[in-house]
């Protein structure tokens, strides 16, 4: 097995110079670096990652906890995080079966979690004596005052405001809201439900319930797998059964909206000619459906990179911004008709 001593001997330098060069820390002259890299290539030397971790007390591994790996939004968020982490010299892995007991035993330098409730649970379990850098990806849910935990927020309440303003601008006055959850059970818990209720209840008055297409009894169990696409298809049937007068449907998220698009296509109902559909998230997969789904984007790339960057600031001892926020924006497609 080739060692650093072999590299040092071939390059004519000290072992410490090889270590500083391979670790990217400390001064090594340009000539010596070139000699070291040449020796590394000639000998085929590969550093032992476990040995480096023990010496540096750093694994260069990060963890992202997302409750549902089948959710396109979290898959895309993870991919963006992973790409950025790799550019910064770290590996990010996905952890979907969450267990706070496993956190202390996992080889990682820090973790990103999908909401402040998970962050609070992890922090409470770790206690004051065990430090683990944690960053929260937040979506407008009221953030608790969590000591030592920064958050990167994209406010989905704002996303609903932006979407409703766009639909009205396109001439739609009768707008339904479609969700896979029990809207009225969950209306105080989820900002998308809260926003639609606050903004449209004064408009519809007693008829507000007529414009809510939900799944009564589904109360969002924690960390459960959620098949938004299938639920969207089912919701399209409920919309037709209810004979709702809406000219546009504002969907809980893009994957749910794509399910509705698919079901309407099966029933020969044309979008946007017969009904307009708008989603929330701005996932890349929406470009693979016909028509191209219009959506309110949650700036997935920006949030992903900010989460990783903030976590690395904590790990590497730089100043940390504990409150980061991005505004949603409209990403127009072809699924909304102008009346």
From TrEMBL:
The keyword DNA-binding applies. Residues 2-56 form the HTH lacI-type domain. GO terms for molecular function: DNA-binding transcription factor activity; transcription cis-regulatory region binding. It comes from the Bacteria. The keyword Transcription applies. InterPro entries: HTH_LacI, LacI/GalR-like_sensor, Lambda_DNA-bd_dom_sf, Peripla_BP_I. Keywords: DNA-binding, Transcription, Transcription regulation. PANTHER family: LACI-RELATED TRANSCRIPTIONAL REPRESSOR, XYLOSE OPERON REGULATORY PROTEIN. This is HTH-type transcriptional repressor PurR. It comes from Hungatella hathewayi. The lineage of its organism: Bacteria, Bacillati, Bacillota, Clostridia, Lachnospirales. The gene is purR_5.
């Amino acid at each position: 097995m080739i060692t650093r001593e072999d590299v040092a001997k071939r390059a004519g330098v000290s072992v410490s110079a090889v270590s500083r060069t391979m670790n990217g820390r400390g001064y090594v002259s340009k000539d010596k670096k070139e000699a070291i890299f040449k020796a590394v290539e000639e000998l085929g030397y590969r550093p032992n990652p476990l040995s480096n971790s023990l010496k540096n007390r750093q694994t260069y591994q990060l963890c992202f906890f997302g409750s549902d790996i089948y959710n396109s939004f979290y898959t895309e968020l993870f991919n963006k995080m992973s790409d950025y982490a790799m550019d910064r010299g770290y590996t990010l892995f996905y952890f979907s079966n969450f267990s706070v007991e496993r956190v202390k035993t996992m080889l990682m330098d820090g973790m990103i979690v999908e909401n402040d409730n998970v962050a609070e649970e992890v922090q409470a379990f770790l206690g004051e004596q065990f430090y683990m850098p944690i960053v929260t990806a937040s979506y407008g849910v009221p953030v608790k005052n969590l000591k030592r935990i920064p958050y990167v927020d994209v406010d989905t309440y704002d996303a609903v405001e932006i979407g409703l303003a766009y639909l009205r601008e396109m001439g739609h006055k009768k707008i339904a809201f479609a969700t896979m959850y029990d809207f009225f059970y969950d209306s105080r818990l989820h900002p998308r439900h809260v926003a639609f209720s606050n903004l449209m209840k004064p408009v519809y008055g007693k008829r507000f319930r007529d414009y809510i297409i939900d799944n009564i009894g589904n109360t969002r169990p924690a960390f459960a797998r959620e098949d938004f696409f299938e639920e969207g298809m089912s919701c399209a049937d409920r919309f037709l059964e209810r004979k709702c007068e809406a000219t546009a449907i504002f969907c809980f998220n893009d994957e749910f909206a794509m399910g509705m698009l698919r079901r309407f296509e099966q029933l020969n109902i044309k979008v946007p000619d017969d009904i307009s559909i708008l989603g929330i998230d701005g996932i890349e997969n929406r470009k693979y459906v016909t028509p191209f789904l219009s959506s309110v984007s949650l700036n997935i790339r920006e949030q992903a990179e900010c989460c990783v960057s903030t976590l690395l600031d904590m790990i590497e001892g730089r100043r940390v911004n504990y409150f980061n926020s991005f505004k949603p924006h409209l990403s127009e497609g072809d699924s909304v008709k102008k009346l």
